[in-house]
Amino acid sequence: MTNIPQLLETRAEQYRDRPLCTCEDSQLSFQTVHQYACRLAANLQALGIGPGDKVLTLMGNGAEFLYLFFATGRIGAVLV
Fold first, then answer.
1. Does the CA dihedral 20-23-27-29 come out positive or negative?
2. Crossing angle of helices 30-46/4-15, nearest 10°?
3. Can you tell me the mean pLDDT for 53-76?
């Protein structure tokens, strides 16, 4: 069974520079989103956030939300 962060990783390997989405008039590639999400996941873990922890956010749709969505899923945290 594949989870969402694993799916992003697979697609980043497969589609690298293809656009995943457009945010704020710029296109984000699969690889870019994957790289930022991995770095953010590592930073969240360094802060002590782990599986089952809730991460609260108040932000609109944008690149940062996308990175946070995949980063929390990668470490097993819950985005609220």
1. negative
2. 140
3. 92
Residue 1 has what pLDDT? 54
Report d(CA 49, CA 51) in Å as an integer: 7
Residue 28: strand pairing partners: 21
On average, the pLDDT of the chain sits at: 89
- Nearest Cα residue to 72 out of 60, 61, 47: 47
Among 10, 65, 62, smallest CA distance to 34 is for 10
Average pLDDT over residues 32-55: 96
Structure tokens at 61: 């749709």
Contact 31, 17 (CB under 8 A): yes
